[in-house]
Amino acid sequence: MSLLTGKKVVILGDRDGIPGPAIEECVKSTGAEVVFSTTECFV
Amino acid sequence: MDLGNQQRIKELAEQYGSEELLVVLGGAEAEASGLAAETVSVGDPTYAGPLAGVSLGLKAYHMFELKNEVDGAIYEEQVGMMEMVLNVDAIISEVTAYRAQ
Amino acid sequence: MNDPVLKGAAYALIQANDVALHQGSTPVSERLANPDSHFLAELPAHWRSFEQAVAYPPNQAFIGNIHPRELRRIPRPWHGNLMDDARAGGKHGAIFSEDVLYALMKAVDAFDLVLLDNEFLAPIKEKLLIYEGIKQWGCLARLDKNQAALIRIEELVASGSAEPMYFEHQLVGCVKRAHEYDVALSAHVMFENLVAKATGAAALQLLMNKTRLIPADVDYLIECSEEACGDMNQRGGGNFAKAVGEICGCVNATGSDTRSFCAGPAHAIVEAAALVRSGIYDHVVVLAGGASAKLGMNSRDHVKKGLPMLEDMLGAFAVHIAKNDGISPVIRTDAVGRHKIGSGASPQAVMQAIVADPLADAGLRISDIDIFSAELQNPEITEPAGAGDVPGANYKMIAALGVMRKEFDRSRLNQVVESIGMPGFAPTQGHIPSGVPFLAHCRASILDGTIQRAMIIGKGSLFLGRMTNLFDGISFIIQANAGAKSENEDHQARCGSKKTRVGLTVLGSEHPVSELVKGAEAASAADPCLEVVLIGGKKSGKLAAVAADSPEACLKIMDQMLAQGHLDAAVAMHYAFPLSVSTVGRIITPAFGRKVYLANTTGASATQRVEALVRNTISGIAVAKACGNQAPTVGLLNLEGARQAERILRTLCQNGYRISFAGSGRADGGAVMRGNDLLRGVPDIMVMDSLTGNVMIKVFSAFSSGGGYESSGDGYGPGVGEKYGKVVNIISRASGAPVVAGALLYAAEAARGNLPDVAAAEFAAAKKAGLGDLFCPLTTDRPLEEKAAAPPEKAVDEEIAGIEVFVIEDAVKQLWKNGIYAASGMGCTGPVIMVASEDHTKAIALLKQGGYL
Fold this sequence. Notes:
heterotrimer; A: alpha+beta; two-stranded parallel sheet; 1 helix; 21% helix; 35% strand; C: alpha/beta; Peroxisomal Thiolase, Chain A, domain 1; Rossmann fold; Alpha-Beta Plaits; 3 domains
């Protein structure tokens, strides 16, 4: 039972940290639903 | 946070509410990550975007904090290497401090 | 070897404070949302002056005046530690100011969109004249056309149909829209595109100024910025490349644009490498100008934190990829890294694809790469904005990859980061920092042997275009050229640790200076271990030069340089040697093409003739030995004194100073040689007096050319003496290129063979064998024999030669006194005494006793 179970998740990834798609893979493994995912780039 | 993203999150919060909606961050730096956490909970502290003065009360977690909440193998594959690269403790500390209670 | 090489790279930085304020996307967005913004009002207070921007250490690193790793020694903040000796001109590029940018934008504008106020334009046209190459651009003529009054410019800007161009807060010009309603040709788009074109052209011109690339050499150009040029029907039609090539005169090239966000440059270089390797083109240039939109991108945070507006610099670069020249670093086309569509988005997957996989393809490990050039954004710019240290993070990722691949232990992570990376130093201009800023430094470090191998990495955020969520990355390896390396090794083996430096005075000849330069070039080409320095000439091709304005000055400088050890030897015209030093020339004899030393051809070895001949012989032997012949044969040309000299030499030989005598080719043999022997090149060394030698060398050098142009042989040779410590070879004012070349090679041989030491040793050995004593008996103050009565006449049929003509009568009388009938005569080889055959042995003994033989 995860903190994320049953939640709707917004992902704010960072190109120089952890990008959106990588977080998405992790979140999806808990069964939570990803409603929005983006990766920000500051450079 | 990108102003377009602020708008999107505002709309999603209106749609799903702060109980069901959760934000996961992937920021590289503690300060920027703390800023994002603050923006989605009490509002944009830089007063630059749609969330200026808007408290959505959303809880934000950094991916590093969710290590034990997700599949171990997938975490290792997707995030593992960045534990050696980024300042994990500083990031977790900052995001925890700004997270909505 | 088809491997493509990195043949050159150049960089431009252009300060543009007003452009940041009026066209930078962050200030522009702010102005739209919040026109009375405090941030906008405050921003100009954070501007740097041009001098401050030039002296900013990362900018000096970008244009090549310091190595990026030197930034580790400069304490941060770097903006608080400006460099004292900074220059706007750099080893690999240059820094320009905003006013120059505007002039260049107008110059490259082929559609009369750029208007500049006359008052602003006039001084800038003057300023452009200091820029080599740019000042010769044909398009500068546009600066005199389509001039506009300020009032017209103000009108256009106010109407919204033109982008303002401000300089130090004054409106000085504008860029008009290219179409009334086509948004792809809006004033703002045209402004951005003209900035990219102008700065790209500046970088390309710098590449030509700093390297040997000439415009006509370029076959193809690839432009890789992040701008799009087109119109509403083809918004990204493109080909900035050809537009930039046109400005710089690349008449033989075409081009195209490559786009992949920040990874564009790395893609473009891989494409260029492929074009060259396949043989389609020999010379490809990859270039990109700067992005005005990115100026001041993070300035909100910089202002908030009280920092200067560090994002005031547009960046541009141009790189030359060429076919293998045997010297420049090679781009390995067998190990290109690429982030594939199926690679995955995690940082680990990205690094695996871009770094680990290509290394594996090349059979290399992370530790085999001396330095990685990743995204090189200046951390001083990105950290205050919350984006961290991008290069630092990249290096940590590479090191972390190494840990995961068990190449290093986790505890060594930070050490590895230090050793594989460098501080970021590039402006946040998107595609500009991505791998390419290090290329010029990389090339220099590989050529000087500091590093062997580097990996260049480009990464791009494709998702920003909203076409895909995918990331992008590409990498390639550059390494030392194997051709160059083995050439260097071979060179080392042959030349020892350094080349032989020989100076050549080029003034004072009867032929033009170009004749001497030709000779120098021929000698350099024949001997890669030879380095010629032209004294009195101008730098020519690979030949260095030292200025001198007269033949006398040439000789003076030559002597200075020899004395200071800057030259190992020299070749000069009309150089006066001291007494007792004379030159040993070298000719090519016609019968068999054999080289023969003529000892001597100029100078005076001694005042007394026979002594001079003997000393000439020793000089000749010294030169032959220094030049590699350890047992040279000696012949004496049949001249007055030759026999005497031969006698003395044979005595020395008997006393331990070894001499190998040649035998005449004529039937009667002997060490005294005739003209035929000279033509046949019988001895290694032909001994004669200097005046005769001088005649001989001129005849042999210019015989086939008719006299005014010496075309054969190695010149009059090095000066030699008992105590002469220099190697100075003489040529005449009639010596043509072949003789000049021969003389340079001859001088180099003599220098390498340590002629001064060898000569000193030969004279010492000869002295030990009695050289000093043997000249005394030849003094002429000996009493003449008084008249003696002749013995009864006999038939005389034996000739005794070798008696000097001025004592021959005395010798005859000496024999008469001893009862031997003798008569003097002229044999075919010179004066002789004739005696009867039965008296021959006794006569010789008596003559020897009397010192006549």
